[in-house]
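Morning F.,

Quick status update on the modeling queue. The single chain you submitted on Monday has been processed. Sequence for confirmation:
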Amino acid sequence: MAKTPEQIFVEEKRENIAKSAEDKKLQELSRQWLLDSSGYRYSYNFTWLGRPIIQYPQDIVAMQEIIWQVQPELIIETGIAHGGSLILYASVLELIGRGEVLGIDIDIRSHNREAIEAHPLAKRISMLEGSSIEPGIVDSVRTAAQGKTPVLVVLDSNHSHEHVAAELELYSPLVTKGSYLVVFDTVVEDLPAGFAHGRPWDKGNNPKTAVWQFLKSNERFVIDKEMEHKLLVTVAPDGYLKCIKE
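Structure tokens below.
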């Protein structure tokens, strides 16, 4: 049977992604560009439907693709900041016609909370204030996730190895087969030591080291390398984890 134009397009796309992954010069240029742009806080330059979204545009597009593919009933994100990511997720869910977003942050500043709650997409968003690994918060999230499917989880709060490792253990069981567990800022491991400027994470102590440790003992998830390869520039190398088992 002859291939459809759509099948041909998808195959050509995958071939191009595979070839770019093998292009060492392109990979190095992408890494260097991310490093250089980080010095200017490039990720702070963008908004989503009026709210600051502290992400690189490539990762914004990646999350849109994942949400549309998975069509989750619930998206859980640790780390809220200005709320742009919550609005992004809610906007895609609004187009899908169902789904809720639950954001967690240890400190939801009043001006950010007010702006998020006043947004036209606030009806799809709820927030919890407290540490994402505090038992009471975890219990509330588990209650919110009960009976929901699919569930997608995004980790983007404290980027230390210890904290992310704890989040992975606590929140990975909520992710349903076929969905994703996305761990942002794994790129810290690929940056020069000291680049985090006094933060409690650095090379050797960051989300990527936590992911590597997690995957040694958890067979439910695999790294979606195709996502990373097609983005070329991403703050989440090895951080797009697809759930392949119940």
